[in-house]
Amino acid sequence: MTLESAISFLAAVFIFGITPGPGVFAILARALVNGAGSCFTLALGMTVSDIVYLVAACFGLAAMATHWGDAFTVVRIVGAAYLIYLGWKMWNAPLDLEAVEGKGSRSGLVLGFMQGFLISASNPKVILFYIAFLPTFMDLSVLDGGDILLASALTLVGLMLGLMMIAIFAAKARSFFQSEAAVKKLNRSAGSIMVAAGAYLASRH
User: Fold this and answer.
1) pLDDT number for residue 163
2) 112 and 42 Cβ atoms separated by less than 8 Å
3) Do 204 and 125 touch, CB atoms closer than 8 A?
4) Which residues of 51-88 are buried (b: 16+ CB within 10 A; e: fewer)?
5) Contact between 163 and 30 (Cβ < 8 Å)
6) pTM assigned to the model
7) What pLDDT does 79 receive?
8) How many domains does the chain have?
9) What is the pLDDT of residue 32?
10) Please, what are the averages of pLDDT over each run of 10 residues along the chain (205 residues)?
11) How far apart (Å, rounded) are the C-alpha atoms in residues 36 and 100?
12) What pLDDT does 53 receive?
């Protein structure tokens, strides 16, 4: 991969990362309720899932996934149902913002990572992105380990940068929610966003 291709690929991944979809909606909803810091492992889980798809595409395995329609549909429905469940929990979240922040326990970090991984893994647009766009930036027939490693690193940087920027901007909006009534509206708005993300994912084919 040339320097020009690497920069173009990084820009494309960044734009892809901030494009509205289930992952962005999940980051937005969590940041509104729990702050930007709580989104790091969620974003990391999404990014690692994307890198798995990237590597699979590099080895030609992604095309095979297009024939696993039934299995992929099950994963997509499970992911959508999980997003809707998270939205329901946010709708009924505590009204005390400080109570919602959490303490960043190890189990909570692992759960956040797994949530992000599942959200991205169950989103059909992820695998389609890498199938369609990878040949634009690199010749898949002559890839070596260094190219795959570089593409993975660029994906990590581009996606984490985009997702955490969204989280930071969303978290800043929390300062406008000080009263109990405002916090209730915040929780329900975030829950609605998450449910909408689940519905959106379920509707994709």
Assistant:
1) 94
2) yes
3) yes
4) bbbbbbbbeeebeebeeeeeebeeebeebbebbbebbe
5) no
6) 0.69
7) 64
8) 1
9) 80
10) 82 83 83 86 94 82 53 64 71 53 60 88 73 68 80 94 91 65 64 69 62
11) 13
12) 86
Locate 155 and state its tokens.
């994906």
Separation in Å, CA 50 to CA 18, 73, 118, 125, 181: 14, 18, 11, 11, 38
Which DSSP string corresponds to the chain?
--HHHHHHHHHHHHHHHHSSSHHHHHHHHHHHHH-GGGGHHHHHHHHHHHHHHHHHHHTT-HHHHTT-HHHHHHHHHHHHHHHHHHHHHHHT--S-HHHHH----HHHHHHHHHHHHHHHHT-HHHHHHHHHHHHHHS-GGG--HHHHHHHHHHHHHHHHHHHHHHHHHHHHGGGG--SHHHHHHHHHHHHHHHHHHHHHHHH--
Distance CA(155)–CA(139), nearest Å, equals 17
Per the structure block, which two tokens stand in for 89?
A: 């929990």
Distances (CA, A) of 78 to 64, 73, 83, 128, 201: 21, 9, 9, 19, 10
Q: What's the rounded Cα separation, in Å, for the pair 26 and 70? A: 25
How long, in residues, is the chain? Answer: 205
Domain that holds residue 117: 3-203
CA–CA gap between residue 83 and residue 202 (Å, rounded): 10
The first and second tokens of residue 78, run together, are: 């499970």
